[in-house]
Design a protein that fits this description.
The chain has about 350 residues and is α/β, with parallel strands linked by helices. The chain folds into two domains: about 5-60 and about 75-125, Leucine Dehydrogenase, chain A, domain 1 (Rossmann fold), CATH 3.40.50; about 145-285 and about 315-340, NAD(P)-binding Rossmann-like Domain (Rossmann fold). The chain has helices at about 50-70, 95-105, 120-125, 145-165, 180-190, 205-215, 265-270, 280-285, 285-290, 300-310, 310-325, 330-345; strands spanning about 15-20, 25-35, 40, 45, 75-85, 110, 170-175, 195-200, 215, 230-235, 250-255, 275. The strands form two sheets. Strands 1, 2, 3, 4, 5 and 6 form a six-stranded mixed sheet that branches. α5 (about 180-190) links the parallel β7 (about 170-175) and β8 (about 195-200). α2 (about 95-105) crosses α3 (about 120-125).
Length: about 350
């Protein structure tokens, strides 16, 4: 496999392959950029179909963190790590301690935190071997509620721009993925009067939202074709693709998932269908903004973090306006702005 020739490699500064046979750890750490500061990004544990699939996912997520941190105005670069394995059956203290040792060997070039398949308890074990861990209990903790709050603010910005509505009352939203972030997002939406249509691969997660929030359950293969105002992808990425886009009957795509577009060209296809795409790494930056408030040994302040997350609303309105004025896609505008900020910092 020619790593440097992969499209997703995109001038990464460093890629570290980690293997510890004793604990069973197989992991990849990607550092995309440290121009704005130490690379920061969560650790994902997933049972990938192949090592190449894990690498490409880590590379794309790492670049996304660089752009996310840049547009959030944080003094942090972008990085990401993935642990290859089943998060329900393969976790052990030895595995996370071994991972912590690999993190520590990077001497602060990369800070890790939780992501899909990882909990604050897992990160506490990693923290035994390295100080370069964010999102620990007793500090900022679980970033999911704050990520959801940011997505909620971003969705309000999209609804304001496209539908000229200041409130989500009566707005129909199809939510795909009801994990921690998805559920908290549904709480915000329901509290403001939005009508929810939801799906997940886990029936218990669906039942919880239906029972607690009065949502309507939808088959996982039919979520794309719902006649709604907003489609909110909150599971894994690449759900905006050649198969799903023709099914969409929404005006807006705004959700918590990373890498929602299977390919960059799908942003252009959405634009041609008059669907407003809310760049994923802008709208879902709440979690990383939250953990940034515990960096450098500072006292974590939740309200200050939430105030910073609320700026996602204005950032997106700016991106939407530039995209409209230049006739570019929103994902291209966001990428250009992020790359400029990183390049300016490098100078």
């Amino acid at each position: 496999m020619a790593v440097f020739n992969l499209r997703a490699y995109d001038d990464h500064e460093q890629v570290v392959f980690c293997r510890d046979p004793k604990s069973g750890l197989s992991a990849i750490i990607c550092v995309h950029s440290t121009a704005l500061g130490p690379a920061v990004g969560g650790c994902r544990m997933w049972e990938y179909n192949s090592d190449e699939g894990a690498l490409i996912d880590a590379l794309r997520l790492s670049r996304g963190m660089s752009y996310k941190n840049a547009l959030a105005g944080l003094k942090m670069g972008g990085g990401k790590s993935v642990i290859i394995g089943n998060s329900k059956t393969m976790k052990s203290e030895a595995l996370f301690e071994a991972f912590g040792e690999f993190i520590n060997n990077l001497n602060g070039q990369y800070f890790t935190a939780e992501d899909v398949g990882i909990t604050p308890n897992d990160m506490a074990i990693v923290n035994r071997k390295t100080e370069y861990v964010l999102g620990l209990e007793g500090k900022s903790g679980d970033p999911s509620p704050v990520t959801a709050y940011g997505v909620y603010q971003g969705m309000k910005a999209a609804v304001k721009h496209r539908l000229q509505r200041d409130s989500l009352d009566g707005v129909k939203v199809a939510v795909q993925g009801l994990g921690h972030v998805g559920y908290y997002l549904c709480e915000h939406l329901r509290a403001e009067g939005a009508e929810l249509f939801v799906t997940d691969i886990n029936k218990e997660s669906i039942d919880r939202v239906v029972d607690n929030l009065g949502a309507t359950a939808i088959d996982k293969d039919e979520i794309y074709s719902q006649e709604v105002d907003v489609y909110a992808p909150c599971a894994l990425g690449a759900t905006i693709n050649d198969t799903t886009i023709p099914q969409l009957k929404c005006s807006i795509v705004a959700g918590a998932a990373n890498n929602q577009l299977a390919e960059d060209r799908h942003g252009e296809i959405l634009k041609n269908k008059n669907i407003l795409y809310t760049p994923d790494y802008v709208i879902n930056a709440g979690g990383i903004i939250n953990v940034s408030f515990e960096q450098n040994g500072g006292q974590y302040n939740k309200q200050a973090a939430l105030d910073k997350v609320s700026e996602i609303y204005g950032t997106l309105l700016e991106i939407f306006k530039v995209a409209e004025n230049t006739q570019k896609t929103t994902n291209v505008v966001a990428d250009e702005l992020a790359r400029k900020r990183i390049a300016d910092a490098g100078k």
